[in-house]
UniProtKB/TrEMBL annotation:
<protein>
    <submittedName>
        <fullName>VanZ family protein</fullName>
    </submittedName>
</protein>
<dbReference type="InterPro" id="IPR053150">
    <property type="entry name" value="Teicoplanin_resist-assoc"/>
</dbReference>
<dbReference type="Pfam" id="PF04892">
    <property type="entry name" value="VanZ"/>
</dbReference>
<feature type="transmembrane region" description="Helical">
    <location>
        <begin position="12"/>
        <end position="35"/>
    </location>
</feature>
<keyword id="KW-0812">Transmembrane</keyword>
<feature type="region of interest" description="Disordered">
    <location>
        <begin position="168"/>
        <end position="191"/>
    </location>
</feature>
<dbReference type="InterPro" id="IPR006976">
    <property type="entry name" value="VanZ-like"/>
</dbReference>
<feature type="domain" description="VanZ-like">
    <location>
        <begin position="24"/>
        <end position="144"/>
    </location>
</feature>
<feature type="transmembrane region" description="Helical">
    <location>
        <begin position="72"/>
        <end position="91"/>
    </location>
</feature>
<feature type="transmembrane region" description="Helical">
    <location>
        <begin position="129"/>
        <end position="146"/>
    </location>
</feature>
<keyword id="KW-1133">Transmembrane helix</keyword>
<keyword id="KW-0472">Membrane</keyword>
<feature type="transmembrane region" description="Helical">
    <location>
        <begin position="98"/>
        <end position="117"/>
    </location>
</feature>
């Protein structure tokens, strides 16, 4: 179900609009942070070998390694929450949502790495791509499924489509303003 459905309240639409705005603000910040020219006396070579940069970071000691790896994990991690929020879908398969969000995060990270090839002082690193994508996946797994379930519960309760019978405690779906959906009787196949 898409959030733009007419039965969704203005709160859900505002939530989606806030997601789009926050996503754009975060992407502008990431672009400014990663694509600005740096004035450095020397540069390391580009790293195209997976996990070589992570091994080099680990060789620097636990404090420096956790800082560098943590920065790479956290750079695009908000996309794991903001992309589904901007998409605005409440009823979606958790696996499809994770796959779609991680793929989008990987493509954004790859676009940043490719754009860094023309920026003075910035170096392409395949490990950044891997860590950025892992950060998107972890943030998505930690926040989105629980948030969606809470929003679905709040949307059902706030939309007014469930009500209680005065004598009973069983929730019943209210009929839509247009009436019930017509059904077609089954017809046997002719010989």
């Amino acid at each position: 179900m898409d959030v733009r459905h007419s039965s969704d309240g203005p709160a859900v639409i505002r939530f989606r609009a806030a997601g789009v705005v926050l996503l754009l603000v975060h992407l502008l910040f990431v672009c400014w942070l990663t694509l600005r020219p740096l004035d450095v006396p020397w540069m390391t070579a580009a790293n195209f070998q997976p996990f070589a940069g992570i091994r080099a970071d680990l060789a620097l000691g636990p404090a420096e390694a956790s800082r560098r790896i943590g920065e790479a994990l956290l750079l695009l991690a908000p996309l794991g929450v903001l992309l589904p929020m901007a998409g605005g879908r409440l009823l979606v398969s958790p696996w499809a949502s994770l796959a779609r969000t991680v793929a989008a995060g990987a493509l954004i990270s790859m676009a940043i790495e490719l754009a860094q090839t023309g920026v003075p002082g910035q170096v392409v690193d395949v490990d950044s791509l891997l860590l950025n994508t892992a950060g998107v996946a972890v943030a998505h797994l930690l926040v989105v499924p629980l948030s969606r379930s809470r929003l679905r519960r709040g949307n059902r309760a706030g939309a007014g489509d469930l009500y209680r019978i005065p004598n009973g405690t069983r929730p019943v779906r209210a009929e839509s303003p247009q009436g019930s959906t017509p059904t077609i009787t089954r017809v046997g196949i002719a010989p």
